[in-house]
Amino acid sequence: MNSTENTGRLLVISDIHGHKHGLSLLLSEAAYNPREDRLILGGDYINDTPDTWGTLETIQALVQGGAQAILGNKETKLMNQPKEKTKAVRALIDWLHTLPAYIEEEGFLFVHAGFRPGVPLEDQTLKDMTEIREEFWGESDSVDDQPGTVIFGHTPTFRMGASPGELWRAKRKIGIDTGAKHGCRLTLLDVHAQMTYSCSTALDSMYQDIRIQNLNILK
User: Fold this and answer.
1) Contact at 8 Å (CB) between 40 and 110?
2) Residue 183 contacts by C-beta under 8 Å, 6 or more apart in sequence?
């Protein structure tokens, strides 16, 4: 999926895990304008608790306003659960079935978890794109079959060697799950400006300690 008409910023955030207030805060800090900016939402919007349904509704509203969203493993798990649900929840699940597993935009590939090395893009499985870990990010040649820099979440960056709450960078790969689920940080990346907006998700400083940083990640 490509967009060439919109000349605004290209923003991306992943692994929100129920932190809809943190998401709204960072979009406000970045002065997100859906009429000009492109926003890509990278999956794992919900957590394992019922109070995260509001986050999924927030994601749906952002998409209806012009953002693009992809599936994470939390969403695919939800889609495959046969349990009875309310009408509103079933409607949200039906909507999840319409979301893609990846988005291609301006020389970047946005995916939740990564890609299976040696497999062409069109042959990648949904399971790998939402669940793969070290087989993707731990291999230096894992992007050789892909047509761009891969921006992904799923694996918290501190587990890949980055400092807690910071982005992770390797050859044509940028990891943006900065550990919101684990009490670290939730991060919104302005791709071309190489700027991040982040806030704490620690219990004692929830949605505080807002940081705006200029980086050098597009090497």
Assistant:
1) yes
2) 201, 202, 203
- What 3-state class would DSSP assign to 208? coil
Q: Rounded distance, CA 121 to CA 80, Å?
A: 24
Beta strands, E only, the chain? 10-13, 38-41, 68-69, 102-105, 108-111, 149-152, 168-170, 173-175, 185-190, 195-200, 211-214
Rounded CA separation 70/76 (Å): 11
Tens of pLDDT along 33-86?
999 999 999 999 998 665 578 899 999 999 999 999 999 999 999 888 766 678
Burial, 90: exposed, middle or buried (Cβ in 10 Å; 0-12, 13-18, 19+)? Answer: exposed
| Burial class of residue 46 (count of CB atoms within 10 Å of its CB; 0-12, 13-18, 19+) | buried
CA distances from 188 to 27, 44, 122, 132, 204 (A): 8, 14, 28, 22, 21
